[in-house]
Amino acid sequence: MNRQYDVLIVGCGPCGIGAALKLKEAGLNIAIIERSTPGGKVNIAPRVDNYPGFTKVSGPDLAYAFYERVSNAGIEILGEDLLSLEKNDTLFTLKTDRETYRAKAVLIASGTKEKKLGFYNEDALIGRGISYCALCDGHFFKGLPIAVIGGGNSALKESLHLSHLVSHLYLIHRRNEFRGSEANLEEIKQMPNVTILTPYIPLEILQDDRVTGLRIKNVETQEEKILQIDGLFPLIGQIPNTQFMKIPGVLDEQGNIPVDKKMMTSVPGLFSGGDVLPRLLRQIYLAEHDGIIAARSIVEYLKGV
Ligand SMILES: Cc1cc2nc3c(=O)[nH]c(=O)nc-3n(C[C@H](O)[C@H](O)[C@H](O)COP(=O)(O)OP(=O)(O)OC[C@H]3O[C@@H](n4cnc5c(N)ncnc54)[C@H](O)[C@@H]3O)c2cc1C
């Protein structure tokens, strides 16, 4: 028979962990489904600077501290990949790569994955010159030349943030027109240390044991050039981890999960929080906050079913 829980949480990042601790305190029968390392994206943050209580802390150390809280609280972590989520009558059915579970309520805290450029060496260079989070990692490139790839508002805004830190910033976009706002573009243009390169596409990330350069091509003239850089920020967007969602009407057009102020989706009993929501700023404390609000709402919801 399929195992049944009061609540199943998908994702053991800050949102899932924040919720799990509160739900366990409330005496509910819960588990977290996590396909990778507990702690979520915090594991890949080289240094976390803006988490209350620490002046600075390494991402992996903070992720481990999160994990210890979950483990000490006796919360079950199912090391499995969620493949599908459905609702049948009042219960949710969650199929993983190993088992099928049922739950009265579900919290989706599965975060996002970065859109990749698709180069063979991209993954290996994350933390060694490649970052997808300017706000988090910009200070590692203080006084160094870097490149940002992207044409939306996040690429423009994060370029502006980075331009105050780095020696030189190349902003590369494949079209002449930017998708981001004119105001943001104008601000970037005023920065003396920014060179805008359009319409260029990246061809190759150059490296020794870190990023050393980027080969790019002008798509109109076919002219190629090599930029000597120490950092590369591909800011071409994020993909929400919601491919398992089989319940209609839960996702927005981008695959994110909109919620109300109680963190509940359009489906009763289905909650969400953290990076998987449609939002501009994705940060640890926001994810944790969502998890705690969701937990409170779940406890209320379960009283009524
Ligand atoms: C390089 C980097 C540096 C950062 N630095 C900072 C910083 O300094 N300060 C800060 O506040 N924020 C920082 N952030 C952002 C922060 O890490 C995120 O905002 C936060 O981790 C989001 O928490 P979350 O719980 O919503 O999602 P996540 O932390 O992404 O956790 C989601 C979890 O769900 C799991 N999951 C996804 N799909 C499935 C599935 N189908 N089955 C099972 N498990 C699944 C994932 O494996 C993951 O562990 C940084 C991010 C990056 C990438």
SSE order and pairing:
Blueprint: E1 3-10, H1 14-25, E2 30-33, H2 59-72, E3 76-78, E4 82-88, E5 91-96, E6 100-108, E7 112-114, H3 134-137, E8 145-149, H4 153-163, E9 168-172, H5 182-189, E10 194-197, E11 200-207, E12 211-218, E13 224-228, E14 231-234, E15 238-240, E16 270-272, H6 284-303
Parallel strand pairs: 1-2, 1-6, 2-3, 6-16, 8-9, 8-14, 9-10
Antiparallel strand pairs: 4-5, 5-6, 7-15, 11-12, 12-13
What structural class should be given to the helix and strand makeup? alpha/beta
CA distance, first residue to last residue: 22 Å
CATH T-level fold name of the largest domain:
FAD/NAD(P)-binding domain
Residue-averaged pLDDT, rounded?
94
| Tally of strands | 16
How much of the sequence lies in strands comes to: 25-35%
The CATH class assignment of the largest domain is: Alpha Beta
Shape: elongated
CATH-derived architecture of the largest domain: 3-Layer(bba) Sandwich
Order of helices and strands: EHEHEEEEEHEHEHEEEEEEEH
Q: What's the helix count?
A: 6
The CATH superfamily of the largest domain turns out to be FAD/NAD(P)-binding domain
- Please outline the major beta sheet: 7 strands, mixed
- Unique bound compounds: flavin-adenine dinucleotide
Low-pLDDT parts are none
